[in-house]
Write a structure and sequence with these properties.
The protein has about 170 residues and is mostly helical. Helices cover about 75% and strands about 0% of the residues. The protein is elongated.
């Protein structure tokens, strides 16, 4: 029974801290701002990862397979996938009021996914530990899609939270 009393006290203590409508609006604005900042920092980190890994991957591919017939094609596919990810990350704003039609980033993602599938097929055809960098474009694309999904879903959740505000006045 003592656990229930502690729980009741905890509920009563937190329920006495009601927020008025101005505090609710400030909290919702803060959540929205934090979402924008976290998405911007995620974009920066992914862009930096793309720019750092590109020369390394190109060097590794050229170093391990300098005379292979498909080495240049794989380098081109890796380069194209990273460029599509970077363009999709930097140029297409996502959100509720996006100026770009929703089909454009989706088409870029589909083309990038096809390129990633081709690279994964190349990895499966000649499996070796040195070629694990073929996974990087798929990881980059997955990270981009995940960042975008988190950002948009948080926007929708904050909007739903904004609709749940209540009027409360302290006397």
């Amino acid at each position: 029974m003592s656990r229930l009393r502690k729980l009741d006290r905890a509920v009563l203590d937190t329920s006495s801290e009601l927020l008025d409508s101005d505090d609710q609006a400030a909290l919702i604005d803060r959540l929205s701002t934090e979402n924008i900042h976290s998405y911007a920092s995620g974009k920066r980190y992914l862009s930096l990862a793309l720019l750092v890994q590109l020369p390394v991957v190109m060097y590794l591919e050229h170093h391990h397979n300098p005379q292979a017939a498909h080495a240049h094609l794989r380098v081109l596919l890796i380069l194209l996938s990273n460029v599509l990810t970077l363009v999709n990350l930097r140029e297409f704003a996502v959100g509720v009021a996006s100026p770009v039609p929703i089909a454009v980033p989706v088409i870029v993602d589909v083309v990038n996914g096809i390129i990633c599938c081709q690279l994964l097929y190349s990895l499966g055809a000649g499996w070796s530990l040195e070629k694990l960098y073929y996974l990087l474009p798929s990881i980059n694309l997955g990270s981009l899609v995940l960042f975008r999904w988190w950002y948009v879903s948080t926007i929708h959740e904050v909007e739903a939270l904004g609709k749940l505000t209540y009027k409360y006045k302290t006397v």
